[in-house]
Design a protein that fits this description.
With about 450 residues, the chain is mainly alpha-helical. It has one domain. The protein contains 17 helices and 4 strands. The strands form 2 sheets. A two-stranded antiparallel sheet has the order 1-2. Helix 11 (about 280-310) crosses helix 12 (about 315-325). The chain is globular and about 70 Å long. The relative contact order is 0.18.
């Protein structure tokens, strides 16, 4: 509900206009998009070079791989959580999310990057049996290859489910493009449409499919965060026990996913001509979600921190020395500022949230916060001397580890790969779902109530 007419926006209601604008959007950009694809492809190749250089030159030194693990966790936390921005409003039947749900699904479809980064990490990930003894982990009586196998399988599953969710949500649009385009794009759409003609049974099946895939994606996402956070950080440090850590890790991923959706939506709106579809209403709602995610971040952090602070056992003190006041103290401070303090202070103001640019700047702050947090959690954990892995608690705190050229190349390549895949997908799938806008126009009607402007939405279910 908007309190004044200036802030009330409504997407085009003519079906032909919506159809033609959104189909043509897959061809916008021209030379700029082609140049961007070439540049991003080159930068992505540099990331592969960084992974290979790290693998062949430093594969025998586990302590040098902390930044690669942090980059994996960072990409996972800023992309995999994005579809939840579409899933949660779908469950709540919130129509404001329709223009940005496709963006969320596209971001969630880049999971293959996580699988690629995980491959070299498998070579240096410590086995369950070290010097004839089983190290502490969640794999009590499992085979020695369990963390390697299940971590990789979980990432592959998340990538497949993300693609399946995107395909399910875009199926009606493929049918529309099949019937209203030509050339190569029409042939691709015809293949992907898979005989969809919009019958009652097909629509009913589609809704059920989207609901099932959304639920499955959520469970897979939590499963992945649990495994990655435990196997690639917590179990690497002797004596580190934290029951809330996997959920705190997942909450950081939700915050990063919301931030990614806001940033991509802002870019798409400004540079791809979607002002009539992605309006202040979407940024207003996303800003509130980002504000809530920032508060949840500090809640999860404090819930874990208070146990170690008042516990004061040898293992608790070692945790504080390693992750709070140790080699990454300044990174911890930056993570706290950008994950909570700055976004909270910025988004607490109504005028900031109720704008297009305000949530965008808040999202940039939150993305930086996720980046620093993942460095704080993963780099010190991997820096621990492997010979100490059987100790009851960490007795020797490692020194501060700085990134080398290979780490920087992998970071640049990973981020570039995310944007590259998003752009390539947008050449086939519109950034905004055609059928979702059409359905919204059929179910909703703008109304005026006293001095306010709002939307009356039909509830056919």
């Amino acid at each position: 509900m908007s309190t004044n007419e200036e802030h009330f926006h409504w997407p085009p209601s003519d079906p032909k206009v919506v159809k033609n604008e959104l189909i043509s959007s897959t061809s916008r950009g021209g030379k700029f998009i082609k140049k961007s694809i070439w540049v991003l492809s080159l930068l992505s190749l540099l990331g592969i070079v960084g992974l290979l250089g790290k693998l062949f030159l430093e594969s025998d030194d586990q302590t040098q791989w902390g930044y690669i693990a942090a980059i994996l966790a960072f990409i996972l936390s800023t992309t995999a959580g994005a579809p939840m921005v579409a899933v949660a409003p779908l469950i709540a039947k919130a129509n404001w999310a329709r223009p940005i749900s496709r963006i969320a699904h596209i971001i969630g479809a880049v999971g293959i990057i996580n699988v690629i980064i995980m491959i070299p990490l498998l070579w240096v990930l410590p086995p369950l049996m070290v010097d004839g003894a089983r190290r502490r982990s969640i794999w009590f009586e499992a085979p020695n290859y369990s963390p390697h196998f299940w971590d990789t399988l979980s990432l592959v599953m998340l990538a497949i489910v993300g693609l399946a969710l995107l395909y399910s949500s875009a199926l009606p649009d493929f049918a529309t493009m099949r019937d209203n385009s030509n050339g190569t794009k029409q042939r691709i759409a015809k293949f992907l449409a898979s005989g969809f003609v919009g019958s009652t049974v097909q629509w009913s099946t589609l809704r059920m499919r989207i609901g099932i895939m959304s639920t499955f994606y959520f469970f897979t996402l939590i499963f992945v965060h649990t495994l990655i956070s435990i196997d690639l950080s917590l179990s690497m440090v002797p004596g580190w026990r934290d029951a809330i850590y996997p959920m705190a890790h997942a909450m950081g991923g939700i915050q990063g996913g919301i931030a990614s959706v806001i940033i991509v939506a802002w870019i798409v709106r400004k540079y791809f001509g979607y002002e009539n579809y992605i309006t202040i209403n979407q940024f207003w709602a996303l800003g509130r979600l980002m504000f809530a995610a920032s508060l949840m971040w500090i809640y999860f952090f404090y819930s874990a921190f208070i146990v170690f602070w008042y516990g004061r056992s040898m293992s608790d003190t070692a945790w504080l020395d390693l992750l709070i006041r140790g080699p990454m103290m300044y990174v911890f401070i930056l993570g706290m500022l950008f994950s909570f303090v700055f976004p909270w202070w910025w988004l607490i103001w109504n005028k900031v949230r109720n704008s297009v640019n305000g949530p965008f700047y808040g999202a940039i702050l939150a993305i930086l916060g996720v980046f620093f947090e993942r460095i704080r959690l993963y780099v010190p954990a991997w820096s621990v001397d492997p010979s100490l892995i059987h100790d009851k608690w960490l007795k020797i705190i490692p020194k501060t580890l700085y990134p080398d050229i290979w780490d920087i190349l992998v970071l640049v390549g990973a981020v570039s790969s995310v944007f590259l895949i998003v752009i390539i997908i947008s050449r086939v799938v519109p950034f905004i779902g055609i059928w979702e806008i059409q359905q919204f126009n059929l179910l909703a009607k703008p109304v005026k109530y006293i001095k306010a402007h709002g939307v009356r939405v039909a509830k056919p279910d």
